[in-house]
Amino acid sequence: MPNVIRLVDGMELCKKMRLDHFTILPPTLGYDKCFAIAGGRFLSTSNGAIEVEDDASVGKIRTAFKKANSSRKGSRKMLSDLVETIS
Predict the structure, then answer these.
(1) Bridge partners, residue 25, by sequence
(2) Of 71, 12, 6, the residue nearest 36 (C-alpha)
(3) Averaged over 22-35, what is the pLDDT?
(4) Phi and psi dihedrals of 19, rounded to 5?
């Protein structure tokens, strides 16, 4: 069980972090899995509500809906990986 992550592996983990806003670190320091979550502007909470103006066009409503759904995909992926680890 290594206590360090090789540079090449670290670069791949960084690429995955930029894409998914989270990554699963390989077994290190006695843990089977370690979830790393991106912070800063990528760490935000939402109740999933879609906010549009009353007189918004169909295009604006569609864009707001797509944006709300795309932001939840990463959360679902991380949650399913976490549940798989626990079960």
Answers:
(1) 34
(2) 12
(3) 79
(4) -75, -50
Q: For the residues 38-59, what does the mean pLDDT come to?
A: 74
User: How much is the average pLDDT of 47-75?
Assistant: 77
Integer Cα distance of 55 and 26 in angstroms = 50
Residues 6+ apart with CB under 8 A from 51: 64
Quick check: 64 and 52 in contact, CB under 8 A? yes
Radius of gyration for the chain, computed over Cα atoms and rounded to the nearest angstrom: 17
Higher-confidence position of 2 and 15: 15
Helix, strand, coil shares, percent, the chain, to 5: 55, 10, 40
pTM above 0.70, yes or no: no
Q: Which residue has the tokens 């679902």?
A: 76
CB neighbour list of residue 79: distance below 8 Å, 6 or more residues apart: none
